[in-house]
């Protein structure tokens, strides 16, 4: 699953906000009780593993010039929920990018 979130920020600002707020990602996962691990595999790429509701999602976040791109591998069991998950990612991603 790929979700692109447009932004008009400098890459350095996006990077700073993601690094500063990565710990908040678990709180944005529907249903709560999520465990999120992140690591930076490059200046503009954050790898991510999310464990919630007995499922594991792996993927990453890439900071592009005008968008933040989130790629997640959905387990087959969650594929039918892709529209709901991508909508939530889009909304919560915009909140993570917001100044605050």
Plain-language structure description:
The protein is an alpha+beta fold and 100 residues long. Helices cover 27% and strands 37% of the residues. The protein contains 2 helices and 5 strands. The chain has helices spanning 11-21, 82-97, and strands at residues 2-6, 35-42, 45-52, 55-63, 67-73. A 5-stranded antiparallel sheet has the order 1-5-4-3-2. A hairpin with a 3-residue loop joins β4 and β5.
Beta fraction of the residues? 35-45%
Number of strands: 5
N-to-C order of helices and strands: EHEEEEH
Largest sheet strand order = 1-5-4-3-2
Low-confidence stretches: none
Average pLDDT number: 89
Key phrases:
alpha+beta; 100 residues
Tell me briefly what this model is.
This protein is α+β, with helices and mostly antiparallel strands and 100 residues long.
């Amino acid at each position: 699953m790929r979700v692109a979130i447009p932004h008009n920020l400098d890459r350095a600002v996006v990077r700073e906000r993601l690094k500063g707020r990565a710990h908040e990602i678990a709180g944005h996962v529907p249903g709560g009780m999520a465990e999120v691990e992140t690591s930076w595999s490059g200046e503009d790429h954050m790898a991510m593993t999310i464990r919630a509701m007995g499922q594991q999602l792996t993927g990453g976040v890439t900071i592009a010039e005008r968008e933040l791109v989130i790629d997640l591998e959905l387990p087959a069991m969650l594929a039918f929920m892709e529209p709901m998950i991508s909508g939530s990612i889009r909304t919560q991603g915009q909140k993570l990018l917001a100044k605050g």
